[in-house]
Every structure is written in C-alpha cells, then in structure tokens.
C-alpha cells in the first residue's frame, strides 16, 4: 500500500509539472469566489475557505480578536460540542485545520472523497463556518490560554524582536498592531460573535477545492458552504502603509544571543516586481549556504550560524526582512556586515553565475511545491484569496527564467531603500 501511495504521489508530481494546473473559477450564487482543481490521483478531497478576516481587521483596542474568533470556530458548532466534532471527524478519517494570520482566516478540511465519508465531513465544516457556538465557558478558557501564551512570549527575545520589528515598520497601520495580554483581556464573547457576523460572509469568502470530485460536485459543495453565511460585503482595506522612516530600536534582554531584524515594508501580492525580487533575493539571502549573506556573515566571519533574507508580500505592502542571531558582543559588527552585503547587492546586482544558479534552483524545486493535494490546495487558495492570475502556477517557471540582472537591480532599488531600513535588536551590547 505504501509503495502504491508513493507511486501515486510521484505521478501527481509528474502530471502537475508537465501538464500544468488547471484552475477552474466561478462565483457561487451566494457571492463567494470559488477555485477548483480536479485531481483524480488520490481518493481525497481538500477544501479551504478563506476570509479577509486576519489581524489587520482587528478593531482599534481589540488586537487579538481575529485570532480568537478563528480559534473558537471548531470548538463547538450547531448541535455539536468540541468533543463531538473531534470524535466524529476521527470516526470518518477526516480532519479540520487552518488558522488566522495577518490578512486572512482559514478553515480547511481534508477528507476521503467517497460520498459516505465526505458528506458527513462537509456537514461538520458547514456548521463550523455558519453556526459557531462561542460557548461562554470555552471562550473564557481560550481567552485565558491566549493571555498566558502572550505573557510567555514576552519573555522570549525572538518574540520580543518580532513584535518590535512589525511595530516599527508599521507604526500607523494595522499590520503593526499586535495582540497583547491587555488587549485580549478586554475581549468578550459578543466581540467574537460580532466579528464573525461582519467578516465571515459569502461576499468576503474564497473557497478552494482540490481533489477527487467533478465540477458539478464542486459547484454544489461550494454553494452549500456559502449559502448559510450572511451575504455581507467584501472587507474594506485600510490606507496603504506609509514609507518607513528608518531607525534603530534597541531592546535590553539577558539572553546570551542578540536577535537582529533589518527591513522595511516592501511589496504587496500581485506586484509585477515580485519575480525580480524573488530571483534576486535567492542570491542575497534566500539561497541558504550559497547566498551572499551566509557566505559573508557566517562563512567568512563566523558571526552567526544562520542568516537569511526574504520578501513576504501581503494584501498590502509586506516586509523585506534580514534576520540573524549572534553573540551580544558581535551584534554591531554583524549588522554592519549585513548592511554592507545588502548595499553591495543593491549596487551591483547578481553576477551572471549567481543569476543562473538562482533560476536553476527556483525552477528546479518548483514541482516540490505541488507534490501533494495539500500543497496544491495551499497554492491555489493563495491565488484565489489574493486575486492572482489563474495561470500563475503554469507561468511561474517561465517568469523566473525571464528575469534579468537589470530587472533585479531596478526592482530592489524601488522597494529596498537603505535610508528607510528599520533595525531592531534584542540583547545586543
């Protein structure tokens, strides 16, 4: 059985790599956007429902509401309490997943595609989406658990640095407002119910289905999930983040290792500069041991075990970030080297050999991003939620191959401006 499953997964990789991914898209009668990929290789169905209901939509003074609302969805819904949900899902071999991040809240279902398995699983998913209980006792338990977790995070230098970094990059934007023990303590059950009613609506939903079902079944399933939601409207985005002002935030901590983050708000999803930035960043700090940051900071000087850089495009401008840990006494030297490497890359861009290596790695590893239903679901769900072109996956490798060194230099110049870089250190001497 294991060999057959391995062979089936290998076949799926080959099919995806050679034939592309056919994403079918429509809007359900209730107003939800639907994205569907029929895949008959495995007898599985993966469904994900995304809402623009992440932390950027937390009301003023109520940071943490989006995450707590999402956490409460599958802890009791309709006629089922949390134990009944867990037991029934286990009985049919299905599971629920998902979570909430900066932009979106997600509820995901994985089930066998046989009708006698998928229909009970879909019934539970419908209840979780449409009729969460938000039981008072469970709400208080989850609220206490969240507050305890947030208090514990405030003792860790990595968590302290991350919160300070986002607050410094986005001082006047919701991306910079993060949950605290104090903000979560003000929340009540009615806040969760109101947030759910406002953002968990059909018009604010993106439904993705990947697996062993027909188009007609996909249409029926998607509409059954959306029809019981309030029609609502799409979430309203805040004003775009302002350009960063640059500067240093230095926070004390008794840790022996300094935590260092350098970056700025850089790029939103769908920006045409994404591929030049992606390819260029492989050389700068995204390529592991072959990246310039790793060679200069780790290999040449031994300042850090690991150093990286990446772009994280979001609904609005997400960050470009360089991160590393080093001895307290070496922090300032390590920062200087990292900044020097970045300055050199901004000036010269990648060499011909570096550009060739970056393209080879990014295109060669691309099929591994699609080698399971779950990975395919993740990619298609992102395409749907962020409104990317339906042929995004088909065009990915060609887009990477088409990038030139000059395009990389121009894109970095537009989005990574040294005078606007934010630097946050925790436990640095």
Task: Please provide a brief summary of the model.
The protein has 429 residues and is of the alpha+beta class. It contains 16 helices and 13 strands.
Q: Helix tally? A: 16
**Rg over C-alpha atoms, rounded to the nearest angstrom:** 23 Å
Mean pLDDT: 95
Overall number of strands: 13
- Class computed from helices, strands and strand pairing: alpha+beta
Q: What does this 3D model show about the protein?
A:
The chain is an alpha+beta fold and 429 residues long. It has helices at residues 2-19, 65-72, 82-91, 115-130, 136-153, 157-169, 181-185, 189-199, 215-227, 274-286, 292-300, 331-348, 352-364, 373-386, 392-402, 405-415; strands spanning 24-27, 33-38, 44-51, 76-77, 80-81, 95-100, 105-112, 205-211, 247-251, 257-267, 307-311, 318-327, 422-426. It has a six-stranded mixed sheet with strand order 1-2-8-3-7-6, sandwiched between helices. A hairpin with a 2-residue loop joins β4 (76-77) and β5 (80-81). The termini are far apart. The relative contact order is 0.16. Residues 1-18 have low confidence and may be disordered.
């Amino acid at each position: 059985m294991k060999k057959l499953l391995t062979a089936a997964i290998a076949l799926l990789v080959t099919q995806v790599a050679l034939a592309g991914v056919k994403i079918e898209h429509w809007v359900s009668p209730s107003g939800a956007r639907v994205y569907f990929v029929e895949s008959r290789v495995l007898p599985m169905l993966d469904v994900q429902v995304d809402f623009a209901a992440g932390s950027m939509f937390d009301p003023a003074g109520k940071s943490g509401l989006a995450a707590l609302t999402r956490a409460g969805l599958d802890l009791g819904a309709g006629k089922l309490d949390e134990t009944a949900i867990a037991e029934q899902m286990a009985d049919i071999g299905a599971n629920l997943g998902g979570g909430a991040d900066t932009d979106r809240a997600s509820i995901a279902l994985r089930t066998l595609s046989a009708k006698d398995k998928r229909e009970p699983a879909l019934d539970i998913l419908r209840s979780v989406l449409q009729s969460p209980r938000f039981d008072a006792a469970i709400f208080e338990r989850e609220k206490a658990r969240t507050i305890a977790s947030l208090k514990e995070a405030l003792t860790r230098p990595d968590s302290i640095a991350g919160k300070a970094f986002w607050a410094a990059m986005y001082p006047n934007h919701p991306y910079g407002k993060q949950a605290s023990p104090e903000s979560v303590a003000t929340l009540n059950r009615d806040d969760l119910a109101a947030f759910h009613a406002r953002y968990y609506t059909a018009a604010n939903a993106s439904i993705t289905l990947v697996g062993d079902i027909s188009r007609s079944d996909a249409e029926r399933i998607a509409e059954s999930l959306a029809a019981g939601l309030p029609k609502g409207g799409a979430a309203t985005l805040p004003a775009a983040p302002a350009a960063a002002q640059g500067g240093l935030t230095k926070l004390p901590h008794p840790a022996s290792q300094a935590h260092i983050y350098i970056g700025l708000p850089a790029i939103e999803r769908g920006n045409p500069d994404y591929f030049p930035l992606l390819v260029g960043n492989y050389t700068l700090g995204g390529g592991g041991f072959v990246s310039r940051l790793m060679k200069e900071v780790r290999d040449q000087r031994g300042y850090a075990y690991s150093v990286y850089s990446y772009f994280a495009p979001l609904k609005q401008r997400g960050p470009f970030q360089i991160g590393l840990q080093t001895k307290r006494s070496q922090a300032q030297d390590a920062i200087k080297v990292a900044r020097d490497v970045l300055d050199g890359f901004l000036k010269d861009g990648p060499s011909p050999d570096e550009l060739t290596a970056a393209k080879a790695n990014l295109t060669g590893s691309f099929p591994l991003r699609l080698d399971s239903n779950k990975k395919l679901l993740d990619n298609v769900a992102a395409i749907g939620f962020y409104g990317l072109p339906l042929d995004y996956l088909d065009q990915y490798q060609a887009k990477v191959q088409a990038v030139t060194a000059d395009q990389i230099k121009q894109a970095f110049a537009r989005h990574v401006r040294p005078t606007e870089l934010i630097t946050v250190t925790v436990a640095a001497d």
